[in-house]
Amino acid sequence: MGFKGLGLVYDPIYLEHDTGGHVEQPKRLTETLAVLEAKGITERLVKLSPRAAAAEEVAQIHTRDYFKRLASFCQAGGGHLDPDTVASPRSFEVALAAVGGLLNAVDAVQEGTVARAFALVRPPGHHALPHRAMGFCLFNNVAVAARYARQKYGIDRILIVDWDYHHGNGTEAVFYAEPGVLYFSTHSATGYPGTGRVERVGEGPGEGFNVNIPLPDLAGDEDFGFVFDEILVPVAEEYSPGLVLVSAGQDGYRMDPIAGMDLTPRGYGLMAAAVRRIADRHAGGRLVGCLEGGYHLPGLGECVCAILEQWAGKEGHSGDSRWQVKPEVEAAAAAVKRVHRSYWRCFAGG
Ligand SMILES: [Zn+2]
Q1: What is the DSSP letter of 132?
Q2: CA of 187 to the centre of ligand 1 (A)
Q3: pLDDT band at residue 3 using 50, 70 and 90 as cut-offs
Q4: CA of 189 to the centre of ligand 1 (A)
């Protein structure tokens, strides 16, 4: 069988979530598409359309009460859901299309229509909790997709890699007690929302399946390359996921207006290549990315482009092994290994 290509989920409906003067704005998508077009990536992508997620699908993660409240809030004209999160009259439908876009991406990859997929959607999802919106997020797109993949395709080990600058507290909360979904997150140790400590390893049957890597601000490409090599790759090797989902937030980009990391498009390419190798080795290549944060225009587009370049071809970047690592990042990685040594054989000797 030949290479089926990289799917891109997009639809203009995603521009109808009107956030006013907010950094999480429709231009994030239109400017990203312009960069992809200018770099000649668009013609290498397979277009995928979204659908509206069904209430039953969203209810696998979110409470029916929240679902109804959000619908009527938007119908009544919208406004502020919390100090950071706004909704417009169309936001409920757009949020359903964001979830449904990711579900279609999962279907396309599972059914073999495409080899991999990226969902260029908004609103983002990883802060959304079962019972409420939070941090620009309305529904937790990736969490609904993981549950859907598990139920529809019987995938019993799903890896979620979240490289957004901010900790995905919503995703962590949903799967905290579940071994069937391994949540791996790199994030700022000091940034919003203040969650994501390394000691938060999961609970009950999920103990050990929540891997938080809080990093100092100013961590850059080499630091993230190191952390992915030292922690994600060996853990994934032991876990052997049947599907890899990526909460792809590009707000770690060095010029991002609301964050403080030092990543460049090269760093996103390195991380994209790493998750791709994991998916190829364990999951039959099945890999689905979903846009989360990233607020610098056009830096977001450059970073998404670097990711798609690693996923669009038959072969990706082969991987580096020597990294120039900041001492604070080395210490952060050592702490993760220490905390997780009783759960993962790869860290047992540490
Ligand atoms: Zn973020």
Answers
A1: B
A2: 9
A3: confident
A4: 13
What is the rounded distance in angstroms from the CA atom of residue 83 to the CA atom of residue 251?
Answer: 20
- DSSP letter at 220 equals B
Instruction: Give the domain ranges of the chain.
Output: 6-347
Please determine, for residue 1, whether its predicted confidence score (pLDDT) is greater than 80. no
Please give the structure tokens belonging to residue 152. Answer: 């529809």
Active-site option among 62, 126, 127, 167: 127
The residue type at 146: A
Cα-to-centroid distance, 163 and ligand 1 (Å): 9
Report the CATH number of the 6-347 domain.
Answer: 3.40.800.20
* Pairing mode of beta strands 287-291, 116-119: parallel
pLDDT at 266: 97
Pairing of strands 79-82, 85-87: antiparallel
The CA 334 to ligand 1 mean position distance, Å, reads 24
Is residue 127 part of the annotated active site? The answer reads yes
Q: How far apart are CA 266 and CA 76, in angstroms?
A: 44
CB 29 within 8 A of CB 14: yes
